[in-house]
Write a structure and sequence with these properties.
alpha/beta
């Protein structure tokens, strides 16, 4: 069998797509372009209306590109809109994440049987090891694709899934289910195996990563274990692997996590993505976000005091129902005070089934578009200012391809052509 995996959305989806790839490889299937595949898997996202549109487009594109392939739609959009996707064509099936393991193995076995390959592929499909990474949050718990499934220099490890928060604009917690965490021993073993193979950067991912909790320990304790377990897994003369924390909610960044980050001296990248969403207390209240603008600023100040080199990124929603110009200006003011190195700016997207979608005070599209444009211009200014502050400093950068590397602070920079791909090398910025 030949397969093609189309992945949309967040870092968690990327890790899960690696898991699908690993299952199919274990069954003897080989990757192929969409037009030549026997099976096309579309891993969907539903975080915004635009994400939904891309999911629908990707499934339609798969059907147009290939007149015979089976198409499996999975992921968040497929979980919420299964009947829509299946109505597109008889070749489309909407498969929950928890059923993907069995569905992929079954597809490989059927392809082997149809092609007369029962002696090899069918046996491989039947005996392929169970991959925990395809289980949903509400099932036995999330885990991660084997790092070997990815040839990328930066490898993601999924340690958590689902979310117990209910922000009034968000539908993802409905699609993903309740928050669950992967056992720490499994996470540590995964990281050790990747570090032993020479992977120099591991990214911890989760839908609500800061809620991680296993055997009485949270994210900070997990990071401490990971640092200890991988400290000696280093090539002669090289740097040990480092860890990057993906998006973490500000309310989940406690003093212990700050201190672990400060003491790691770069082995935990001094870069955090802290979703803000708004700098207005009134808007935050309507969003059901569990902090105030002053709480957020105090956290940023504490981080900068304990970790002076830290780079901070964020998400912001503009045009949330009821947002006034004064509310928007409060967001701009807080962004300036925080000095973000990167801001993902999203015009509010109305998601059916959420409390915010039912509000009568929706902001006109042209106002949302104007505020998004203005905030993105500010984001560009802040990024330039943060980069200027780093001029002349030295950071370890991960060489991702010849001549290109990603710094600890998450800036793409030029690397010497002599620097080997996959290595951590010190580079002077500016």
């Amino acid at each position: 069998m030949r397969h093609c995996i189309v992945n949309l959305g967040c870092k968690v989806n990327r890790v899960e797509a690696d898991g699908f790839e690993a299952v199919l490889a274990a069954c003897g299937s080989a990757p192929a372009p969409e037009a030549e595949a026997d099976l096309i898997v579309v891993n969907t996202c539903t975080v915004t209306a635009e994400a939904d549109k891309k999911a629908r487009k990707a499934v339609r594109q798969a059907l147009r590109a290939n007149g015979h392939a089976r198409v499996m739609a999975t992921g968040c959009a497929a979980a919420l809109q299964a009947s829509f996707f299946e109505a597109l064509d008889g070749r489309v099936s909407a498969v929950p994440k928890g059923a993907m393991e069995a569905a992929l193995r079954q597809a490989a076995a059927e392809a082997a049987s149809a092609g007369g390959g029962e002696g090899v592929l069918a046996q491989a499909a039947a005996s392929a090891p169970v991959a925990d990474d395809v289980r949903p949050a509400a099932d036995a718990g999330p885990s991660v694709a084997p790092a070997a499934a990815s040839s990328r220099t930066r490898v993601g490890i999924k340690v958590q899934d689902g979310c117990d928060n209910a922000c009034t604009y968000c539908i993802v917690h409905v699609a993903r289910g309740r928050a669950v965490s992967r056992p720490a021993d499994e996470v540590v073993a995964e990281a050790q195996a990747a570090a032993a193979r020479g992977v120099r950067e591991l990214v911890l991912t989760g839908i609500n990563l800061g809620s991680y909790h296993s055997d009485g320990a949270g994210l900070a304790a997990l990071l401490e274990r990971l640092l200890d377990a991988t400290a000696d897994l280093v090539e002669l003369g090289g740097a040990p692997c480092r860890f990057r924390v993906s998006s973490v909610e500000p309310a989940d960044v406690d003093d212990r996590l700050v201190e672990v980050l400060a003491a790691a001296e770069g082995r935990i990248c001094r870069h955090l993505h802290l979703p803000l969403q708004s700098g207005s207390d009134e808007v935050l209240r309507r969003m059901a976000r569990p902090y105030s603008a002053s709480d957020y600023l105090r956290l940023v100040e504490r981080l900068r005091e304990r970790v002076p080199a830290i780079a901070l990124a964020t998400d912001v929603i503009v045009g949330f129902p009821g947002e006034s110009e004064a509310d928007f200006q409060a967001t701009c003011d807080l962004a300036r005070a925080c000095g973000f190195m990167n801001m993902h700016v999203f015009p509010y997207s109305r998601r059916e089934g959420t409390p915010a979608a039912a509000r009568p005070d929706q902001v006109p599209p042209q106002v949302k578009a104007d505020r998004a444009r203005r905030l993105r211009a500010l984001a560009s200014e802040l990024r330039q200012a943060d980069w200027a502050r780093r001029a002349g400093t030295v950071e370890l950068a991960l060489v991702e391809e010849q001549g290109r590397a990603m710094t600890e602070a998450y800036y793409e920079v030029t690397a010497p052509d002599s620097a080997p791909v996959g290595a951590l090398v010190p580079l002077t910025l500016g």
